[in-house]
Amino acid sequence: MQQTAPTSFWQRLQQIPRYYIYLLLAGVVVWQLIFPIQLPILPSAATQGVHDAIRAVPDDKIIIITTDWDASTQAETGPQTQAVIHACFQARKRFAIMNLQPPMGVKLAHDLAEEAAQDYDVSYGVDWCNWGYKYGYENVLMALGKDIPTTIGDDFYGNPVTDLPMMQGVEDIEDVGLVVEVTGLSGMTEMWIGLIQGPYRTPFASAYTAVMAPLYYPYLDSGQMQGMLVGAKGAAEMEVLTDKPGRATRIMNVQSWAHVLIILLIIVGNLGYLMARGRAGERAP
Amino acid sequence: MLGAIRQAFTFQPAQTILQLVVLLLASLAVSVALFFALHRFLGPRGRRWLIAAVTFIGGLFFGLEYFYPVHGDPAKNFLSDWIQPVSNMLAVIGAFTVGLGIYSLCQVHGRNVTQRKTGWHNSLAFFLAMLAMLVFGLWDHYLHLPEPLPKVLPWPKGIYEVLFNGLFAPLQAATFSLLAFYIASAAYRAFRIRTAEAGLMMVAAFIVMLGQVPIGAWLTSSIPQTSPYLSFFRLEMLGDWVMRWLNMPAQRGIVFGIAVGALAMSLRIWLSLERGTFFSEQS
Amino acid sequence: MNPEIYVLWAAAIATLGVYTILYRENPISRLFEHIFVGLSAGYLLVATWALNLEGKWWTPMVAERRWYWIFAPVVGGLFYFIYSRRLGWLARLVMGLFFGTAAGTLFREFFPIYAPQIYACFKPLRADAQIGWFDVAVHHWVFVVILITVLSYFFFSVPHEGRFGRHLGRSALLGRWFLMIAFGAMFGNTVMARISLFIGRVEFLLTDWIGHYFP
Prior knowledge:
By secondary structure, chain B is an all-alpha fold. In chain B, about 75% of the residues lie in helices and about 0% in strands. Chain B contains ten helices and no strands. Chain C folds into three domains: about 1-65; about 65-120, no CATH class; about 135-215. The longest helix of chain C has about 50 residues, at about 160-215. The two termini of chain C are about 25 Å apart.
């Protein structure tokens, strides 16, 4: 669409070149990362639900953390995964990482788990393990409900999961005390709820990117989900609950000011639009 | 020989390597013969019926196992014991489709390189990157390094780490992070209050954007958190209320509509009533 | 070999290379895009073999001599006939199998997913010992009104004419207003998500890359 050259100040206000907007955004982010203004983060009820669900898992059951994300959402789902892992380590609950899609997530989550494990007296195979990437979506979940060792086969390192000490006695989904899904993909939650949480009544909690989270509040309301982490905010709240401030806390400090910038830009654009429209209305016969 | 035949019909594991090889080759031969016969003797109508039958049986198995009455402890029916092996087999079969996308990519980029089209060096970079990841990824897998990892890593593992954590993950993260700039620019240029509905949308967006970040809580921090009615007007509480009690019922309404539509569509596909499924118009 | 420093520099150069596209389309960003697609394809092959096929297909078939696993690549290989005009129907055969199983799986999932959703729609609309009037008014009544009006917006079986149709039309209009609130909330969350991704990258550049030399 051809735009006529802006004549009035209000019209020019609506057409700030995009490079200035990019520079403003980058400037705000860099400014806050270098000179952060710390503001308190208050955990929400949804995040508390995830934390409580982890603590409520019986000691003889394991937690499945399904990390269905990749580097495209790493800034949100990475800290979420690490915060959940810290909560599991602190509560002394054994957990298994797995991934249905995309395959990249399982290595990224594995690196995060190894990093978190350094803060605790834990070891791979005893306190946590990584089942790896298992292709098959619903087929994997249906098989998982009946027979975990056969469905999983080998772990992330290529060793049979039955060789791992923590997997002794883990036969089927009845031996799982909680499933925590960390994902940036829609559709995965419906599979877990439809094939695992619903039929077997396995407790389920989740962590989503902020884009997806609004779609899943109905599951929180119905009780199908014990709790939900929403984007980097949820990860930061979880870091507060586990007393392990990390990446998410730093991101949230910056996020505030970036949001203020976006709001100001929208207001400026609309101010220019409304004033220009008002002027045009005055001039019209 | 007789042992191999008995193994074939009872699906028992082979006893020796020779038996295994014989059974593998025989299975391949039988499969090829079967598909050749189906291709030769089934006309277009017969093929459509076969596809419809396979679709129906595939859906019938999983649906019937769920709805058929169960008994005993643990509660199960005559199909329940088959769920795990069938699901496992389907998952493995599905894994073989990985080559489909790879083949398309190689076809497109291969043409660019062989025909020296504009930007063919980018396609060459594609092949080099793919080969490098394939070689060093598999090399890393078969190194079987001990856990925890040694301080000094073998060089193939080092190169794999550079490819994965140095290139693959950062490239993907950076590509998607560009959206921040685009959404900032788009919000500034396109979000105009032309109607009251747009104004309502903007107010909701502002409440959520401020309520989800610490500055929202700070702006309304003077409102006491413990007050049963006033605390509702704290920005983080307002944002939570918008998400849980304004957004949630709307999403549930949308979800119900999608659910009914998905169920109807699944029924049509299961019964092969949907024209154009499986590209049948091409046959 | 200690790859950390190489990882750091490769990641920083890759990130900055991609960001050059913000100025305009250029050969550097295009090169990095192609490298990314190549790495992605290679990793998919590695992950599919190492984390799936090796343990769940090759080992049972070869090490445990379960010869019937040969049928998995035979059936899976039928997908590749999609590229053949003559034998393309074989690909449709196996696609039919997967479409059918997906439909059957949806039949299994439907009630566990949606029955609790329907049950949760019935909320108390009167204050009692457990829930006060404020919560009932501000939460449950609002919920019921929004749910009914949004559902009426998607109800296309009755035209918005006649006595009932006009009431339905007004309800649908109100539903549209509530949908705009939901979309505004989704927009707010989308902004948060996108900005987080960028903050994550800048945090890497400043804290991990530059911070490695200037802590």
